[in-house]
Structure formats: C-alpha cells, structure tokens
Amino acid sequence: MKNSGDRSPSIIRRLPKYYRAICELSEITISRVSSKELGKLTGFNPSQIRQDLNSFGGFGQQGYGYNVKNLKENLEKILNLTTKKTMVLLGVGNLGNALLNYPGFNENGFEIVAAFDRDRNKIGTEIGGVKVHDIDTLQEFLKTNTIDIAVLTLHKDVAQRYATICAENGIRGFWNFAPKKLRLPSRAVVENIWLNESLYTLGYFLTEKIREEDELLNNTNYDFIEK
Description:
The termini are far apart. Helix 1 packs across helix 4 (68-78) and helix 2 packs across helix 3. This protein has a seven-stranded mixed beta sheet with strand order 6-7-5-4-8-9-10. Strands 1-3-2 form a three-stranded antiparallel beta sheet. The radius of gyration is 23 Å and the shape is globular. By secondary structure, the protein is of the alpha/beta class. Strand 2 and strand 3 form a beta hairpin. The protein contains nine helices and ten strands.
C-alpha cells in the first residue's frame, strides 16, 4: 500500500461512495464489477475510480474488474470499519433524536454509548437504547469511559464549550453538526456536517438543471407540416 501522503482528502471522501455501491452489489450476490459499472453506480469516471483504488495498491485485474467480496473487505480495512469505535452524542434535539434511533451505526462498528442533554424531561430516559445523561456530568463520564468520537448536535453557542471538554478528556474525533467552526488541538480530527451548506449546493444544482432544460426547450426547433 502506498504512503498515505500520496492520497488527497478528496480521494478519501469518495471511498465511502464506492463502499456503499459495493455493499449494494454484495447484497444482490454480484461477484464481479468493472470500473465502468462502478462508475454508473457512483457517478464517478471509471478512470477516476481506478486511480483512487490504485492509490491504495489496486484491487482489480485488467479484463476482469474487481472481485466484489475482496474489494468490500479491503475498503472496510481502509475505512477502519473493522474496529469498533465508541461515541457520545451531545444534544438530544430533533437531529440528535434521529441519530440515536438510526440503526446503521452499529452495523458498521460505530456505537453511541451515551447521550447528554440539559432537558430534565429527557435526562434518565432511553432513546434508541441509549441512556440520556445530564450534560453537567459529561466530564465525569469521560474520565471513566474511553470514547473515540463526540457527535455534536448542540446549539452553536455552546458547541465550542463542550467540544473543549471532550478534547481535554481524550476524545480525538468530532462529528460536528453545529454550524460553528471549532477551535481544537491539532491532534483532533473534525468532520463538519453543515446541513445548510449541503442544501445551498442542492439549490444551486437544481437551479442549473432547470435552466439547462429551459434553454434546451427554448432552442428546440419544431417543424409543423400542414395537412
């Protein structure tokens, strides 16, 4: 496998899309797939797919394509889906509630072991099998539990405060849904999921698609034959 310095973040961000497509093929017992077929499933150029996978050593054979089972196993290793990672969720609002009830995390080795909020009506309850604790006890909890990832679904005004507590107590991974850039130690890894930005992007491409279709319609010449 090549040195990790040869791989850009954009390559890493494409890998989960390849993995999702491979999982879909695996579920319907497809045993082999070409880069062209994988391109149709993911929307990426087949040459780009081959290039990305080759940066990890390559898992296909010319004229054969990729063995689905083998590629799935290799992508799981690359994405570190074979190692269990523990998470805490901070902020049990609508989004936090939805994440706690999502079953897909455990299937891929991500386990939310505790949730935290300040709402007295939620503290002590269980959501999706996860107990909700008083957020004032967060630091005490982290001192006695090893946690890999903090999921932040907090209001932006308090996100930094609790992210700092998490970082000071050993958490290095942050899945941040709060619309705020966090100031954390260089050893921390942050993945920002800012929903508005994704929606703005969707809005742009939707507008462009409508514009293209309107232009095509306006530029179409119709020949009418009098009868």
